[in-house]
From TrEMBL, chains A, B:
Family (UniProt): Belongs to the ROK (NagC/XylR) family.
InterPro entries associated with the record: ArsR-like_HTH (IPR011991), ATPase_NBD (IPR043129), ROK (IPR000600), ROK_cs (IPR049874), WH-like_DNA-bd_sf (IPR036388), WH_DNA-bd_sf (IPR036390)
CDD domains in UniProt: HTH_ARSR
Signal sequence coordinates: none
Lineage start: Bacteria, Bacillati, Actinomycetota, Actinomycetes, Streptosporangiales
Originating species: Actinomadura viridis
Protein name: Glucokinase-like ROK family protein
Family matches, as Pfam families: ROK (PF00480)
Lineage: superkingdom: Bacteria
Length: 393, 393
């Protein structure tokens, strides 16, 4: 059984050592405002629990040299980042540094049993490398709505076979550790909060543009999930009543205008209509066009591809402009596969948001591309479960 | 100087007595989880500070009868709710019950000095009635963006002469008590949280449709203001690029489609175009048509007026649908002068939100009209300042 801190002081010390790395007792005492003797009691208890260890002496600050304290180097958190078409498994130490990370294509629509077995297989590879003496907790992200409390997906549209599948319970039994399950966009936002551009930002939005479009919302340094866990599900916000028909049955939803799927659809239409010889050649040779192909065509200067990305950015911007006025965040991060479309997309999003949002809300608002690329999800998964393990039960 | 609690236990006791009314020592001990002797120490100190008093004995719960404790009946909070065209001043006791409330028309555009003098005059009337032995704190709402930290409006569009006027400082000096200043929609949301339909709801939105359109956002039982204090400023969210020109310079903003001002504009156009004999007669006799006139015409069955209100509700609903998908609140309250348009408006808003928001987000989502009518703002103003006074300094 994973040890947990026994009071708020211990929890605070663990999170501090996780986020700031090894610290001297003197430095820790300054931050947590405990007397030297009380601090020693709490640290001794954390050492007994196997969560913390002492590691030599710090340089003198004038008096006696203070002992260095760090998280146990045997601590391990595991993260599963399950996407629509891929699966990432990683293991981190207590400071959430990624020690091993494997990724492979995997269709989430193959169902919970198949996909989770694959995740456990991938974890086995990391185990075989000797990276995982013990698992202290596992954080899991899935590409759909999740009942966070119950640890299971609820009516997820692109995950047949997953509805109310007890993911937390199944993986918890398998690995014998605490497990939390959340939406993939939420764990990406946690990754950005821990190791990305949002490290010092309390209130921000992470917009993931991939197969679909979703948004992770952080308020006061914590994920905001809403009353039924669906907060940030922005893919079906209306851009225009007269827009394309959406899979949800409405017309003109953001995802119907722009997402990996919509981009592939529109690029195929451009190719068939003879408006892009490059895309037409791709369609001819591969039989299909993906969002990645459009990105490559745009990078090579194909005007039709650039126009599609610009139009997509404009529609994302129209929705984000309203959300920025409403939420007044300190940062907007654009991430996900389609964000690989890069600066053309970003420029268009920025242009619309800066023009259409309230000036007060955009005065100091950076809108940036994620710099964590493929690791935001797994770092966020580890952060999610470490927040739980490093809290009082 | 207003006394403040000296520790978190005292603060918790004060808020409990404010929200739940008089309680026996035994009941208080159960809630705050203090030993009988520690509770006695904290209560004694609150009595010394003049914030609390004892009031007889409770019925026996089996053993010795426990003493009843209540907030001092001499506690008074003052609230100024300054709207675009009206001013409300009220005084409450410590439990935030309104003891006196005066309201009169007043144009905020007359500037800070004129309007605040008027507010102080109105307060004088309440004082003359003997209602205010002492003021322990004042909460002020104004119809524009506010720097909450600085206690002043910042670049408020409809408040000429108020930009960076030190409202908190001016009123604090005048009344010799703590003062907080916030946006009028935020204090209405606090009023609903304290005494309205949101009493047991942690995360909700209050949408005020008056001269303009704004939204108060409550997250985890507290106002969410955003990083620059403009959160909830939804009046300029885009409904449609091809819509009417807005005062902000963009086209198709929500307020350009629907607000008290837009409704008066559209009703005047209907009257002039001969599409509503009733509105035409009103225009003829009064020289102008107000939103209230439209409400009355609709109530009397005027088809043009009903159509205007329906169209307005549809546009509000289109914006709210997106915000509900994003924020996933537990409740949406519609309030403000135009909300007096009542159930026709509400039905249209509901219809669009329930159709266009994510089903998960609307499954258990009530969308309701405020039941506090004109008192949400002043109760919220009192709540705002009492949260401050009943907290450790």
């Amino acid at each position: 059984m994973t040890a947990r801190p026994q009071n708020v002081h211990q929890a605070r010390l663990l999170r501090l050592l996780r986020d700031e790395g090894p610290r001297s007792r003197a430095e820790l005492g300054d931050v947590v405002r405990l007397s030297r003797s009380k601090l020693a009691v709490e640290l001794d208890r954390l050492v007994e629990l196997g969560l913390v260890e002492t590691a030599g002496l710090a340089a003198s600050r004038g008096g006696r040299r203070s002992g260095i304290v760090r998280l146990s180097p045997r601590l391990r958190f595991v993260a599963f980042d399950i996407g629509a078409t891929s699966i990432d498994v990683a293991v981190t130490n207590g400071e959430l540094e990624v020690l091993g990370h494997v990724s492979e294509p995997c269709a989430v629509r193959e169902g919970a049993t198949v996909v989770l077995d694959r995740a456990l297989d991938l974890l086995g590879k990391l185990r075989d490398q000797g990276l995982i003496p013990q698992v202290h907790g596992t954080g899991i992200g899935v590409p759909g709505p999740v009942s966070f409390r119950d640890g299971m997906p609820v009516a997820p549209p692109i995950m047949p076979g997953w509805d109310r599948f007890p993911v937390r319970e199944a993986i918890g039994q398998e690995l014998g550790c605490p497990v939390l399950v959340d939406n993939d966009v939420n764990i990406m936002a946690l990754g950005e909060l821990h190791a990305g551009l949002a490290r010092s930002v309390d209130d921000f939005m992470l917009v993931k543009i991939g197969t679909g479009v979703g948004c992770g919302i952080v308020v006061g340094g914590a994920i905001y999930r809403g009353v039924s866990g669906s907060a940030g599900d922005i893919g079906h916000i209306r851009v225009d009543d007269d827009g394309p028909l959406c899979a949800c049955g409405n017309t003109g939803c953001l995802e119907a205008y722009f997402s990996g799927a919509a981009l592939a659809r529109d690029a195929t239409a451009e190719a068939r209509a003879g408006r892009s010889p490059r895309l037409a050649a791709l369609l001819e040779s591969a039989g299909e066009i993906t969002a990645r192909d459009v990105a490559e065509a745009a990078a090579a200067g194909d005007p039709a591809a650039v126009a599609l990305i610009r139009a997509g950015g404009r529609h994302v911007g129209q929705v984000l402009a309203g959300l920025v006025s409403f939420f007044n965040p300190g940062l907007v991060i654009i991430a996900g596969g389609v964000a690989g479309l890069g600066h053309t997309l970003l420029a268009e999003i920025r242009s619309v948001v800066y023009r259409r949002s309230l000036p007060l809300a955009t005065g100091n608002l950076p809108i940036v591309l994620s710099e964590l690329a493929g690791t935001a999800g797994v770092i966020g998964g580890a952060r999610l479960i470490s927040d739980h393990v490093f809290a009082t039960a």
